[in-house]
């Protein structure tokens, strides 16, 4: 079974979020990305692979190095989801508040 990856899976991991943040400053090779994490190069490569599969980074070959570049526009999916969820919950809480206020008035 082929695992389908999405942006939400990518940002679920704190290391991948830090990699995205680091790449938001500009393109880096895998060695440069892994410098601050204290994990193996293989572990960094696994995170990079997931980020690439999710479309959050682009990888290109520059000489003998693979260079990664952030595609921050892909995070719009997260922004859209948060915006819609916020609207939904705001509406639900407003209805709850109205219900509670009406119930309180009836008890008085």
From TrEMBL:
Q: What keywords are assigned to this protein?
A: DNA-binding
The answer to keyword Lyase applying to this record is no
Does Lipid biosynthesis count among this protein's keywords? no
Instruction: Name the domain of life.
Output: Bacteria
UniProt xrefs under CDD domains? HTH_ARSR (cd00090)
Q: Name one Pfam family in it.
A: HTH_5
GO molecular function annotations of the record: DNA binding
Q: Which SUPFAM superfamilies match?
A: Winged helix' DNA-binding domain
Where is each HTH arsR-type domain found? 1-90
**Name of protein:** DNA-binding transcriptional ArsR family regulator
Where does this protein come from, organism-wise? Dyadobacter fermentans
């Amino acid at each position: 079974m082929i695992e389908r990856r999405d942006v939400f899976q990518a940002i679920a991991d704190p290391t991948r979020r830090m990699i995205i943040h680091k790449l938001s400053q500009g393109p880096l090779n895998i060695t440069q990305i892994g410098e601050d994490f204290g994990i193996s190069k293989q572990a960094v490569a696994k995170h990079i692979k997931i980020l690439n599969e999710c479309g959050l980074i682009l990888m290109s070959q520059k000489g003998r190095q693979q260079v990664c570049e952030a595609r921050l526009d892909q995070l719009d999916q997260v922004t859209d989801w948060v915006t819609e969820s916020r609207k939904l919950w705001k509406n639900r809480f407003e209805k709850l508040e109205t219900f509670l206020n009406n119930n309180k008035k009836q008890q008085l």
